[in-house]
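Notes from the 1:1 (GR / supervisor)

We went over the backlog. Supervisor wanted to see one worked example end to end before approving the batch request, so GR pasted a single chain during the call. The sequence is below; no edits were made to it. Supervisor asked that the structure be written out right there so they could see what the output format looks like.
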Amino acid sequence: MGRSERTWKWWKRGEGYQSNAHEQDGAEGPLSPLLEILHLDLDDDDASRFADFTETPDYSTEQELPDMSTLDEAIKQLLAIEGSTGAAVVDYSSGMALAQGGSPGFDLGVAAAGNSNVVSAKLRTMADLSLDSDIEDILITLGTQYHLINVLNSSGSKGLFVYLVLDRTYANLALARHKLKNLAKDITI
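Structure output shown during the call:
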């Protein structure tokens, strides 16, 4: 007997609820608390209307996940990179961080907006130079941190970039770039 069943029996005892033997062990097993509350007689036609209502349906939500959960999962994977202190997926046309996580010691939302200017400026410069290529990543090296910007170029993520902040003391830059590149190719909205 599980805890919820003991609690239910205690509640029935405390209220002076008297159940008959038919309610305790119905034709299809013990009644659910919902049917006991409704005081349905299993032999009655009304009980058949509630039979499907009390069953737990088998929902399949693998394909029904909202996009934000995919982005949040991507952030978790980015933060799992050794030395990572912050990560964001950013729309570079608006500067808005669609998802972010970690605590790099500064406001990731402001950094996302500022780095969208960096990406936009580089794309404009490439257009002015008639360079027909895509940006893979941009590295900004600070005294204690690496800031990696990986521009997403797949059809499902056009206009986005991944912003990753690494602590120079703990991060392996080459390995972090490799992992970022592999994670970034799976990000879509």
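Supervisor's comment: Residues 145 and 168 are 5 Å apart (CA to CA).
Batch request approved.
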